Amino acid sequence: MHRLLVLYREPADPDHFRDYYVTKHLPLVASWPGPLAWRYSFDVAALEGEAPYFAVFEADFADAAAMAAAQASPHGRRLAADVANYATGGVVIIHYPVQDGTG
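RE: above sequence
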C-alpha cells in the first residue's frame, strides 16, 4: 500500500477553510478514482506544545504507480488545482509506502 499525506498549515480564514473543504473539496475527493480509502481531520494535536498543522488528509492507494496515475488523471489535476481555493496557510504533501507492523 502507498499513502498520500497532506498537512495543512493554519489558514488565514479557518471558517472558510472548513466550509469550503467539506462542501466543495471533499465531494471531489469522494468521486476521485484511485484511492482505496481516505480520511481527514480538523482536530490535529501535538503531544507537546502547539500542533504545526491545522488539518490533515490521507489517502491509501494500492501502490505508488496507482497513486501517480490518480494524481495525473484529469480528476487528480482538478483536485490539486482546487487546493489554492482554501489552503491559504500553505500545505505540505508527502507520500510513502506503508509497511505493516509486527508485534
